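Because discrete structure vocabularies remain unfamiliar, we reproduce here a specimen of the format, pairing a chain with its fold in token form:
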Amino acid sequence: MAKDPRKQPAQEAAAAPPAANPKKKLMLVIIVALVLAAAGGGAAWFFLQGKGGDHKEAAKAEEGHKPPIFTTLDQFTVNLQGDNRYLQVGIDLKVADAKVIDQINLHKPEIKNGVLLLLSSKNAEELATLEGKQKLANELTETVNRPLGLPAGQGVMGVFFTTFVIQ
């Protein structure tokens, strides 16, 4: 469609959309930025609020969860049953609390004797497997706890081998 030559420049200006005021544009940008910042802050608060509850529960659980306590029993070298083989084993004990270490030290000769007798009653074949080592660890837990006279779960909680050599 051709331009009507009779239209005045003033009419053309009125027909065109009005030019936006730079102050209004700046104000609009600021408002949008504030709304986005508020939305982001609200979302962060919402998500962190949920995590904060979990964190508080985890902190309470950690307060009730004491760090593990270990003590080294000794390194033992014994002759195994059968064909002239020996076992050298280092043993660490996980205990329920520090008082158990005092009890272990009081009964150390009796405990060491029990451990030596148990270790020397084994043969290389039964200790060569993972199951054999786990069974030995369980037997050692019972052997060490026996002289302590403590109820289950209040003495030695586990036996850990720090060295284990069969020759």
Observations:
- The longest strand covers residues 69-79.
- DSSP finds six helices and three strands in the chain.
- The two ends are 105 Å apart (CA to CA).
- Residues 22-64 form the longest helix (43 residues).
